[in-house]
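Re: folding output
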Amino acid sequence: MAESSSHLTATYLSATADAYDAVADLYADLARDSLDRLPLDRAIVAVFAELVRATGPRPVAEAGCGPGYMTAHLRSLGLDAFGVDLSPALIEIARKDHPDLRFEVASMSAFDVADGELGGLLSWYSVIHVPPPELPAYFAEFRRVLAPGGHLLLGFFESDGGPVLEFDHKVTPAYRWPIDDLADLARKEEFVEVGRMLREPLEDERFRRGHLLMRRQAACSS
């Protein structure tokens, strides 16, 4: 079973990277200024940054950073941020757009950092492409790299309270999640919920947006 799971992981990671490589320039053009019209989204990212700053001067990772605009936003909020992404083409754009920041081609399922090294981790619409059976392993990795007391912020498409739903994302298949289910997955990996925000779709958006802010505990609550 482990070998089969490993093959599945390699397959969807490769397919996701290839899909984003193919549309990297277009995707970057659309994403660069996307935060400008999203005050609620900016607000929860600002809260995340404030909480991370309060825990001390540890680095912060953006998992699935794409062209790097969110990593740069984290830096503007006073965080020592770097980004990782599967797509070499998107990382090349991120490095060109933000030469003062660090970007690496890597999977957010296997960060090249020591245990407990990070003070914060942002996953902004990046877990949406992970097949549901694989997602618990990502939360385990998020727990590994975050220091006790470190914060995790997830942005994702919410399923309006229904079950997990696959949908036709414009780049590659993706999933909408019930916010309670994602919170439960995180709780099993020693995260405690700090807050959540659901935003209704704008006129040109299809789905409700979910945001979960969590803190890593030192150990599971008994």
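--- second protein (sequence, then structure) ---
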Amino acid sequence: MDLRIVLGFALMLVSPAWGQPAASAGPDFQARMSAASHAYEELDYERALEQLDAARAVARDDRERGRVATYRGLVLADLGRRQEALAAFKEGLSLLPDASLPVKVSPKVSRDFEEVRRSVQRDLARNPRPPPDAPRAMTDAPPEPPPPPAFVPSAAQAEVRPERSLPVLPLALLGGGVVLGGVGGIFGLQSRSNVNAARDDAFYSDRTEHLDSARGQALAANVLLGAAVTAAAGAAVTWLLTDNPPSPRTEVSP
């Protein structure tokens, strides 16, 4: 056998391509994007969205994910799903601020895309994103310290001081006396008015009627005024005799 044939066969056996099974090729991001672009050009929008989803699944970084989201917004805009398209544009421009539309579009879609770009730029200016390689310790805010525990005074620190509560019965008697005195005063004025009217009456019957009314009103006035005086006296006595228990008021000693 020819020596060259033998050497060639031996090299094939020890070669990595022959000595072990070939590794399966991973998904190709660019191939998925090309398939989505071809489906879009053929107006097969649903197929284009499927390819974009597949491309996003194999995207390796924010730049590739931004390209997928931007293209997805373009497809959704052509489908008339404007709100979803705006959301996709915002996602794409947030990941890839310098992104541009891959194909020529209508003025309306181009205007929506640029408006979203300006909105994203304003958001990024207010809240700049940290660089992807920034250490986590520098990007994460330090945890806030826990709030101090609420101070609860102990029994030894609490001091109860007597505080006089407002007595109810004396005030009620005093208020009743004031009301009775006011009503008795009204009846007294009415009695005096009837006496004056009786003096001016020319007929005996009219004088008698006014005098009877005056006597009744005078009696009522005297009774009410007496009751008012009694109520006021009772208020004074109960105020002096009431022994109010101290109401607790806790004060914390320093």
